[in-house]
Specification:
8-stranded mixed β-sheet, 17 helices, 5-stranded mixed beta barrel, alpha+beta, homodimer, BirA Bifunctional Protein, domain 2
Chain lengths: 586, 586
């Protein structure tokens, strides 16, 4: 062992102890007659001291030669520090060095290894191993480990069994694009990497495994949006002989356990909201309920006048911005600009100030009188001092726009406190979703999701109206988990696949093994999967996942540190019975 | 919830309780006026009873209609059983059913779902979800979960952090063949699936993460030998600021913890054996030391006579088979046939019986007298009643042959008791291994393994003699883990790669990121990886891993249940800039 103690543990009680430490030189101060070195390891920083009086000359010179990030081993005596640093765990002491060994030298790192670094995203990704030395990244990875351990402990205590499902499986064109893996031993054939272990966990239920979980990597070959990774980690769970209520209870328990153990926060029973209500009140299916600003639907109180914009709209929505009446005209103009950005896409925004005396001043006073505006305030819940912002248009679009505005305003108003946790179940999702481009319905969750009892018949007449036994767990405006009760009846599964446009042959080729399995006594079952990367980030008080992943890829799916993907040898290709087929791009 | 209790928990203390159970019909006995059903779930079996007197007629008929593996839900009263079954956990009671619901019917399964099944390997693989219902497989998977949990608990308590490393990495021609993954977004380029997270865990050490572990899937595209899987699971570990001794201690601690928690076995400090001694005494680097039968080298006591076979041999080895003198001539002839099988490859076997009176009778009495044979007995440790078996030939070959014979004899003699655990460290492995075919040396462990201090110079003069800081953990004749102290100096790493035949460009292209990382202050580090599949199997008292893997592949790398790998659409290929290149086989 190269050390007797870590750099984070020496306290006043260690004074006069002989210790050996090893770590990296965080920085050093050379006053000529004295040299201080901050020695860093995973656990903290300890100050080392060398001085002319007590340190041999040769060692003094060696100490002066130490550069940033040199790896050294020192032995010495713990002594009391003259000027104590109460902000540092080891601030009461320093180590007077009697032996110094340089274990490895270091060239100057391309960015400073400090909490606030001067390194940009790209350079930090290329030298990720140096970035990991920084507390924000290191602590995020340790935090992730802690969360994963608590997940495993909780579920294991509840008799869940972690079962490893295979990574080399079969490609299914349904859903997102698969990553595929050519098989050398089975010429011309490919495995696929799992987008999720969905069918395997269902087979485990058929196999009687009853309570399954797995923390598992999943893969999706999508064009990457910001903050998406081609490989991501799921907490994948499934239970047999349960109804929706049982699943909600178990995983609410898990989430509450994590909030308590990891964040020290006790949370009451999670509220539940119908999908339809979430869309109506918040304009999206993962509302952030840490703050209000619920939507008020204003059609009735706006469409009785001559204002054509509102009259032509399918939906008119307003929200009350708390304290928004203090915004200057310029600030409001900027807000209007903000909603008109292509990313949001509104054509404009109407507003009404609610003055402290209860009177109103709107941007459409020409059309609406004080009585009208009072109704706007009533519907949106606006109080004196607030600002009512109103958008209008097609239902889906205007809801999305207002949702974006609501989140932006909350951000600006500091209402999205990362230390406050507001979990929420959103339930009764639609079974199907209309693809506006193709005009076809596809499964909103996945093709194994069970429709609500008695709604199967609606599939023929009004497919969009069918609700599913499907639910999402939302935390602070992020979907952290989602799942459903599955179909466990072969006939219903066949009907579903037919409605999703699978021919009988396609259904058999892709899901035949699952349908076959349902013949041999499939129990009622259902489950849920959490996105671990995001869950960890949110529990850690962050909205971006990158620092919680040790070696993330960039938005082109590249690992810039190891420079992957890369070209492979022709020989390797030939062995795999493959040829490149690169076409000139137009 | 479909049940108030599991099928494994009802005892006499539950008598008169109303319960609801759900599960599978294991079997039913219909006596006309009475029907008994064994209801099974993951936790056990509970006997249900229906009888003419107490069960309504309609339910009686329904009960009679239940087939094997039907999924049912029942409510009823726990009653005392007339003829108790003390072998069953629930053998004191039965449930008098008042409500019966068939949740799902089942067709007759292709094999019986019992501990001893009539299903062959192939059919059980195809219907793996049914195989998992059988106790031997189900219990193995639960056992695996338990082992993995204990590994995580132990390492986490020792401040190890589980860090997830990427699955989509870069192909390196070194070592076994990679599985590759074409990248759609980076045309013509490929990711590779990791054979192990080796370089990433070393980068984590450079990153200061200090104590890392991960239970992680790894991939090797090898022609599969029996009991190998293309995807397998490793407990991958690495530590910084440690010497070999520290690593052995930590992971000996882990193994001892597992033996205690999982098997209830306390094991003393693990013995350590030099690689050279293992080869000399047992003929292989993973000796089973649950029993003796160590090799005796007989050159000195055999090569002084006119027996040409021995005189021409590089090495003559004997072992003493305890009690082997009782073998008949026919049994010994069969043993000779066994060693002459092509899988073993010996040309013959000489033997000497040690009679109870201490006299000898050998197959080469023409050449050797009693005095000679007494020396054979002395060197091999043979006692009256034993049999000395002798093989001769080239050192490497004869050691391998004798090792095979030793294991076979131990098996026959019942010396390989799966309930006895004999762990062993084998240390001081050679750094390099000569490839007999190419005449080149390659890394025995991997190219990042550190040579023993002071032996670097030998690389030029006698590469085969260089020993490494490399070690294996052996349990009952199986390598369950292996590792090494790594090189952490860029120059030494470059020297090693040169000796392994990498040009400077190849070294840079493949391991440049690691060598770069070593410039920025790499700490001394080392680690170890356990093969989880095998570790679990051996702790579970088995030698084959298949039942400890939920969904294994067959020897052609196929998942016969889901029928993967499979052909993919041309469209998918085109998107990946690939074409099939299937050549006529000669």
């Amino acid at each position: 062992m190269y050390r007797s103690h870590s750099c984070g543990e020496l306290k006043a009680s260690h004074i006069n102890t002989e210790v050996t430490l090893a770590g990296w030189v965080q920085k050093s101060r050379n006053k000529g007659f004295m040299v201080w070195v901050d020695l860093r390891d995973r656990y903290g920083i300890t100050q080392l001291i060398f001085d002319e009086e007590r340190t041999p000359k040769e060692m003094m010179e060696k100490a002066k030669s130490l550069g940033r990030e040199f790896v050294i081993q020192v032995s010495g005596t713990v002594i009391e520090r003259e000027s104590k640093n109460s902000k540092m765990a080891t601030g009461a002491i320093e180590v007077l060095v009697s032996k110094l060994e340089i274990l490895n030298e270091a060239v100057t790192p391309p960015f400073t290894i400090e909490d606030e670094t001067d390194g940009g995203e790209d350079i930090r990704m290329k030298y990720r191993y140096l970035d990991i030395r920084r507390n924000p990244v290191k602590d995020s990875l340790i935090f992730r480990h802690k969360v994963a351990m608590e997940v495993r402990k909780y579920l294991s205590d509840q008799e869940f069994i972690e079962v490893e499902t295979p990574y080399l499986i079969k490609s299914t064109p349904e859903g997102a694009r698969d990553f595929v893996v050519p098989s050398r031993m089975n010429e011309g054939q490919f495995y696929a990497l799992p987008q999720s272990p969905q069918t395997f966990k269902q087979l485990l239920m058929v196999g009687g495994m009853d309570k399954y979980f797995q923390i598992v990597k999943c893969f999706r070959d999508e064009d990457l949006r910001a903050d998406r990774q081609p490989e991501f980690t799921q907490i994948d769970c499934e239970m047999a002989f349960v109804q929706q209520e049982d699943i909600l209870n178990i995983f609410e328990g898990l989430t509450r356990h994590l909030l308590k153990e990891v964040n020290g926060v006790e949370v009451d029973k999670f509220p539940r909201m119908l999908f339809d209500d979430a869309m109506r009140l918040y304009g999206n299916d993962k509302p952030d309920i840490r703050f209000g600003m619920e939507f008020g639907e204003l059609n009735e109180v706006t469409q009785h006048k001559d204002f054509g914009v509102f009259n032509a709209a399918e939906l008119v929505i307003g929200i009350a911005v708390p304290g928004g009446n203090k915004y200057t005209r310029k600030e409001i103009d900027n807000l209007i600009k903000w909603v008109k950005r292509p990313q949001v896409g509104a054509l404009g925004m109407i507003y009404a100030r609610v003055n402290e005396d209860g009177s109103f001043k709107s941007s459409v006073d020409k059309f609406y009188d004080q009585e009208d505006l009072a109704k706007w305030a009533e519907v949106t819940g606006a109080k004196p001092g607030d600002l009512v912002c109103v958008l209008s248009g097609d239902t889906n679009k205007v809801r999305a726009q207002m949702s974006a505005l609501r989140m932006e305003l909350a951000e600006r108003l500091g209402l999205r406190d990362p230390k406050v946790f507001a979990p929420l179940w959103v339930i009764d999702f639609p079974l199907l979703e209309l693809d506006e481009e193709t005009g076809h319905y596809h499964a909103m969750h996945h093709p194994f999701t069970s429709p609500k009892p008695g709604q199967l018949e609606l599939l023929d007449t009004d497919p969009g109206a069918v609700k599913a036994n499907a639910y999402d767990l939302v935390l602070n405006g992020n979907e952290i988990g989602g799942g459903s009760i599955r179909i466990h009846d072969k006939k219903i599964q066949a009907t579903m696949l037919k409605h999703l446009g699978f021919s009988e042959e396609e259904a058999k080729a892709q899901f035949g093994f699952l349908m076959d399995a349902f013949e041999y006594g499939a129990p009622p079952h259902g489950g849920l999967a959490f996105g671990l990367d995001r869950l960890v980030a949110i529990l850690g008080g962050q909205e971006t996942i990158r620092d919680f992943i040790a070696f993330p890829k960039n938005n082109s799916g590249r690992d810039v540190m190891i420079d992957a993907p890369a070209f492979i040898d022709d020989e390797q290709l030939t062995e795999l019975s493959l040829k490149l087929n690169i076409q000139e791009k137009e």
